[in-house]
Design a protein that fits this description.
By secondary structure, the protein is of the alpha/beta class. The chain is built from eight helices and seven strands. It is 46% helix and 15% strand. It has a seven-stranded parallel β-sheet, with helices on both faces. It binds nicotinamide-adenine-dinucleotide. Nicotinamide-adenine-dinucleotide (NAD) binds next to α1, β2 and α6.
Length: 260
């Protein structure tokens, strides 16, 4: 029998994009720490698989289909979660999509979808979850942005704009929702997830690029979902009860360097 700890006992935690990658890592750790984990995803098979994994380890979890790029999906999802779980205590705005296109090549449709998921979805999920959190006396929101929100490279126009927007919006939300709800933001660097694998597969020499990425990190390894999950749980827990409106970079030291 697995040992479930009680750090998040009695807490209902929504993790958007919880079916894979960083969101899966956050969901699994929350399950081990005693939360009632609500996995949100557009990939139903992946979401159900994470729920089964948490339950198999004696944790508590449920899955709700929701495309965070659609306001109607978010409204329906929050209503269904409140009805099924009795409320919401913590929201992890993790779901996001990559768009590796430049200023000239990005189409209007691509721009709209990237911003709808990566920026507007963070706002709408928070807007519709916040009243449920306030009704339970307060809570915490953790937004997953990216180092691309502060430093960037070619071909990240919409993604970089969305991720920079999430950092700015975190500060506004922290003020708007204080004192009941704390809002903080994580900036991951290179994290080994299906998103990273898809990006790697588009490079001319995926194996060589992977080695170069590892070498680029001052800590000489790529990050893992659990590296982000540990930080996320800190910002979601009462251990960070006097921290709001801030950002935490989890990048193995990548953005500390100006150049070699
Ligand atoms: N992997 C990295 O190197 C990295 C670095 C910096 C920031 N991030 C950010 O971390 C977050 C998670 O990235 P990841 O690498 O785990 O991605 P991923 O593609 O590996 O997994 C994302 C999950 O979100 C789900 N999802 C995608 N669009 C959705 C939508 N519209 N509604 C609901 N669910 C949706 C996917 O189905 C998938 O299960 C994203 O916001 C991403 O921008 C990732």
């Amino acid at each position: 029998m697995a040992h479930i700890r009680s750090r998040f006992a009695g807490k209902v935690v929504i993790v958007t994009g919880g079916g894979d990658g960083i969101g899966k890592g956050i969901s699994l750790l929350l399950g081990e720490e005693g939360a009632a984990v609500v996995v949100i995803d557009i990939n139903d098979d992946a979401g159900h698989a994470v729920v089964e994994q948490i339950r198999a380890a004696d944790g508590t979890a449920s899955f709700f289909h929701c495309d965070i790029g659609l306001e109607s999906d978010i409204i329906a999802m929050v209503g269904a979660v409140v009805a099924a779980c009795g409320g919401v205590d913590i929201l992890v705005n993790n779901a996001g999509i990559h768009l590796t296109k430049g200023t000239l090549e990005t189409t209007l449709d691509e721009w709209e979808r990237c911003i709808a998921v990566d920026l507007r979805g963070v706002w709408l999920c928070t807007k519709y979850c916040a009243p449920a959190m306030q009704a339970r006396g307060g809570g915490a929101v953790v937004n997953i942005s990216s180092v691309q929100g502060v430093q960037t490279q070619v071909n990240f126009t919409a993604y970089g704009a969305a991720k920079a927007g999430v950092i700015g919006m975190t500060r506004n939300m922290a003020l708007d929702l204080a004192p009941a709800i704390r809002v903080n933001c994580i900036l991951p660097g290179y994290i080994w997830t299906p998103l990273y694998d898809r990006w790697l597969s588009r490079q001319q020499d995926p194996e060589g690029t992977h080695k170069a990425v590892q070498e680029l990190q001052p800590l000489k390894r790529i990050g893992l979902p659990v590296d982000v999950a540990q930080a996320c749980l800190f910002l979601a827990s009462d251990e960070s009860s006097w921290i709001t409106g801030t950002t935490l970079t989890i990048d193995g030291g990548l953005t500390a360097r100006l150049h070699n």
